[in-house]
Fold these 4 entries.
Entry 1:
Amino acid sequence: MLNEDFFGRISIVFVMTVMATSSAIPLFRYFHQDNSAGSLAIVTQLASTVFLLLLLVMTITRLPPKGTAQGIEPRVTAVAGTFMILLALNLTPALQNGAAQVTALCLILIGTASSIFCLYWLGRSFSLMATARRLVTTGPYSIVRHPLYICEAVFVLGMVLSHLSLLMVALSAFQFLLQYRRVRNEEAILRQTFPEYDDYAKRVPMLLPRFLSGAIPNSGGQ
């Protein structure tokens, strides 16, 4: 398990380094733009860069695993669920509508900023794959068991609006399905690793806060 975690960490560090560098480069171009969405675009791009750098740091410093989902399906689901939106962006052109782009940037910024907060709270327990390192139940994880996925969903909705097309909607819908399956895989390994997880799941809903879900019991993990 340790060797697998080491090689997985190296791979993720490489990918995140490339993505963080690619995210930082457009910042220089944005400073020379003069349009109504320019400032918002700079802040959004900066937030994306900070998020990727935080992912990089948390991956390098993450705790050793106490349990990991077995088999190829959880790994394929995690990778596909993470990067499906990038495929969708490369296959669809941006929508030529100023108001839509500003709204999309707002959604992307909200999703990214809230993701930074959740990731910071999750800290060294972060994993791309379905892995149990430490059970986090405070902060945003006391409201829902998977706050990072909710924040990402807001980000994806912004991307869908920015590149609105039938293909983009279809690919993002598929990505949501992959992420839900990813949640279930994480739930299984967290329950298997932490005996206290069942009590946590009874107290805290999986994805929707109780004031939205009508206090309907739910089951799942972080």
Entry 2:
Amino acid sequence: MFHPSGKSISIGILTFCVALSSGLAIAHADTLRMGGTGAATELMKVLGAAFEAGADDVTVEVIAGLGSSGSIAAATDSALDIAVSARPLKPAEVETGLAQSVFAQTPYGLVSSNPNPGDIAASELAAFYASTTSTWPDGTPVRVILRPNRESDTALLGGMFAGMAEAIDTVRLRIDVPVAATDQDNLELASSLDGSLVGTSLAQVVTEHRQLHFMTIDGYQPTLENLENGSYPFAKSFYLVVSGTPTPLAQRFTAFLQSVDGKRILSAAACRPVVN
């Protein structure tokens, strides 16, 4: 009832705000928030949906666009329950109390929009990457796409093949070579650019349903089977990063990754589950 003093209205509004705040607090407590490397964004969505479906009291929110470093910073500030990183923690990040573990590995290689990129020896890959005259088997030119210098895939690719770090530095001097800021930009540009050549993981190509084609290296395709049997040794690791005292939801999700359903989803996404 309206009262000339306005007290009834004020009390009503206060009661509503308290109830709303309580509701938000409950929702927050039951919401698992995670994010991280763009290469695993779609994978996290699939895993999150399965985890949510098996737990009536949990909502999963996957925050895209953070990248490895951004998600680690968010986990440090407790804005995320879980960060998924494409690189290990730096010493300064470890000092903040974060903990990490590798939960999956996926084949890593070089893809192109060219439907038949062919085979190359690992020892010749750096020279092929750096040359301005490299061509695909059909004679069309190779068009390299770079990643930012500080991006985790730059370090990964640079350390994976002999001479590749120097080859990347050489290509970076060319003004005609585009730079893709994110993992999604990388594959979007690779898909639209004729003769593209980019480094990426099989998991990202599979989960994003990209029509791109991997080069074979030393005669082997970057398949999950070849990674597991050792014939294709080039891999990208995904790290689970949590607080030193992880939230109960983070602990439950970590356990889910080790479950039969979690491992099945990882395998379907071209990832080898890593048991910790």
Entry 3:
Amino acid sequence: MADDVSTPQPERHARPLSAESRGDAPARGRLKGRRILVVGGGQRTVDAKTDPIGNGRAMSVLFAREGATVAVADMNLASAEATVTKIGIDGGKGVAIEADISKPDDIIRMVVDAERILGGLDGLVLNVGIGVGALGLDGANADDWDKALAVNLRGPMLICKAALPKLADGSSIVFISSIAGLVAGSRLPSYDASKAALGGLMRHVALEGARRGIRANIVAPGLVDTPLGRLATQGRPSRGRSPTPFGRQATGWEIAYAALFFMSDESVYVNAQTLAVDSGITGIS
């Protein structure tokens, strides 16, 4: 039953930022010796002076801080290199790879290069996704639909096809999806549909990988304060006003720590699952 509009709603207090939320928590060596390819490890620039860290960069830096050597792949090589620079400042090891996952040849080269440079692969993160076109079905068209699914769904499928034979036994694959794949809300049909379909792809990858102990799981962020999130809010101001149970949007670091759980042996018996990192939007809002 909908709330009566006359009923006062409780004031929302923002959940304080922890050391993990800020990216300040000490490392614990959870990924020591691991070799991880993060696809989409760069980030957009909206305002270089004020931009918060994005999900892909936060994951790359955190994984390296926890002991992994990280191949940071992005279609924007300069942005990937900026992530690697940040990894180095932290004392970690990383390498940048330029790749556009809408191009099948780029995908094959990216996986081959990552395996060669790192000396093997035992971790893969797919942090990719675009939202294109006008809002609603009236604003959708075939070209925008095909473009979105080429990046959001076909790209991850081709990456997994190329990477699965090269991944070491016991590896972990983490798909970064969105709660738009669980509940309607982005107002972009192609985005919602592609993120929902990513769950089917993830489960199939988990099925094929299970006999070798290779796990596949999804992290589904809710509203996150990243450069890409701020860009989305510019196009749809209502996004920035959306209430959240914790009274604020997530940080890129909070998404990165969820991915770290799936990448590490702390989740060694967790497979083919989706974790919504949304302060409870999909569960209690």
Entry 4:
Amino acid sequence: MRQALPLALAALLLGGCASHKPEDFNGTWINQAAIKAAVKGDSLRQALNEHGPVFEWKLDVATHQASFSNGFEAADGQLTPLEKQLQASFFGGQTERLELDGDELLTTDQAGTQQTFVRVNAPATANAPLGSSFEKALYQAYLGGEWKILEGQGKGEKVRFSDTGNVTGLPGPDRFALCLAGDCATMGGSNDSLWLERNQRGAPFIIKRDGDTLEIFQAVNRARSDEMPQLAAGTRQWVLERN
């Protein structure tokens, strides 16, 4: 009887340390840490920079396919099984080591930088571009809910930003997109920016979000005509408050 408890405990520990099956890696994984930091902090750009550069993975062990998105572009690579891990290899010699830590995906690049991802229960549709699942989750957390226009055209109207990029209640635009990376991030510098459009015609705006208050400013280009645009906040267009 004295040995029964230690043996049972050892069996439990050994069972808990059992390696995951290769197919457990399958699915779409998103960078939830970046989303939490964006919602909690004052700067979307800073949160994405600190918790990037990868925001979404898509893995298929059976076909040995691995893809990731950095919010601007996607890369496709090949999966190779290792002991209790997978290696994703990409064009140019880039590699990432993938392992499962409980319900999370832990990735390590060649420089030793680690990132953590969580699996998406309902990933984007098959024809949606890679990165859509992260974008959808970010939109829900960062801009979800009902907002009211406190200042600006349409004062008193209720505004909703959908997780699919639709916006209702703002006078004029009916589509939006947050700037996550790439040229729009470079042009905005340290500013957070939002694209608003209607009938495929639109413009960038600078945004400042403080908890449940969202300010939207015209974007003013301070660069010369022969330089890459450098956008800064101009006239404030709207102040929104989330209910």
